[in-house]
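Q: What does the assembled structure look like for these inputs?
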Amino acid sequence: VGVHLNYRIGRNMTQQEAQREAASVTLARELNTEMLRLTAFLAPSTHPAAQTWWADLVGAQPETVTSKPGRGESQEAGALGNCTLTLSVQPGRVDWLLTKRLEENVLPETGWAGPFKETLDLFISLMTRWLENGPPLVRLAFGAIVHEPTQDRIAAYRKLAQYLPDVKIDPERSEDFFYQINRPRPSETIGTLNINRLSKWSSGAVVLARFALTKQQMVQQPMAVGNHSLRIELDLSTDPSFVGELPSGELRKLLGELERLAVELISKGDTA
Amino acid sequence: VSGAETAAPLQHSRAAGVPADTSANTQFDLIGNRFWIRRYLSAPNPASSPTVRGEYGKGPVSDSHVTSPFQDVGNIWRTLFQTPCGLGLLSIRTLLGCNALICKDGRITVPTPLPWEAESLPAALAVSATVPVRDLEAEARFKAVFQRGRDERFEDGMENEFSQELESLLTAYGSRSKEILSRLLEDESISEEVWAEAMRWLGRFDDPTSHDARLWLLEKGLSSRSAYVRDGAALGLASLDHPSAIPYLERAIHSENIAELRADMQEVLSQLTSHE
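A:
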């Protein structure tokens, strides 16, 4: 915890160096991924009706395919290691999601897809490959939901207070805290582009429960209670005001920049 | 809580003899996340464990959570089956992986709106957010306007009820109109003549909040399968007069096989390039 409190950018440190240092701090913590998301906003000329992106990327066929051709929508999903990789195509946008894999008849111990660093590396390497041969885009976004386990709600609120230096939080006498802020920053990859850095901060407890059903009532039997965590939801995106298509040769670098900004936010908290 | 189905639950419900779309039988608002309920008996197997489609949306809607009292889920369950359920395990999950239920004060929370699930529009949605959300109410409004447009006779350049209604919706929904209209552009139940008229007006409206959305839609319209829509898009782009359409017009001209339409597009291209 002290690491985060004391972590600040030195005056002679470049932004990239600071981001790299932030990454090393972040990756040393216990962080779990609930979900990772890449959203690609398609150029108007793109019609991805007959794409085979999921299979091309994973090297196997997806387990499930749902298609609504009349609405220009499709969805493919399947296993990727211990996670589920989902591709959702809708008019104007493509979403890739990495979430926890659920096994039939196996009660999950947690809701996490896996440790943050492992899932991040896996997801970014896949998405980088997809972008290299992907469709023309007008906007790119990277989203992440990350949890940091805490002993209880008060401990989670104390952590929140550290990550949100501009917010006064009373851990003992407050509940239902939720904080959302966007701090745009100029892109290092494309000079005329701004990057939205939207972050949402809260805490929660995950409860696994079993439900007994009868005609008259449903009884919930909690199986595990009290897995509190600090929840950080990030949504980093290129600003929609950018005119024209994003240069395809820069998409890989742009994703790398979004990733670094995400790691910086998770490590340092809400800073300008 | 367990769940494992990413496959389209609708098919399972049909196979099990459960109505495919049961939302009409429920007492719930349709603004919430869709969800599926699967009943696990002591020896679960696909035949005896029907998956049922429902709508999950009563209760307060906050930023990224849709909550509902446990009892609501039980009500849906009973409404759908109308039979004693017996004892078993109930699995609730969203299509793309609601893999944990966060429970507080007797309520279920489905975390993380995901594509196809996030059909509510949370009040706290940030302008810069890219999480996919669908505003079903807005979509229905736009679609109704397009359907009413079918009964109108359009005259070149003359305002009509359709164009007025479309403009008021665009003004109301601003940049959010892009995703709504791009869905409708794929909707085969909408008349191509009405879309062609819409394209012409998308270029004429003077609403800055929806400008980027209208430009994107017009550029997309150039590659429509319908010649009516392509023609309307070219005219709309001439009215909007924005140079970012140049590369799309060049591509459209290259692939256009109707000579007259190709000439019209060429004229629009000349207009836009003359500003450079």
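Residues 1-12 of chain A have pLDDT under 50 and may be disordered.
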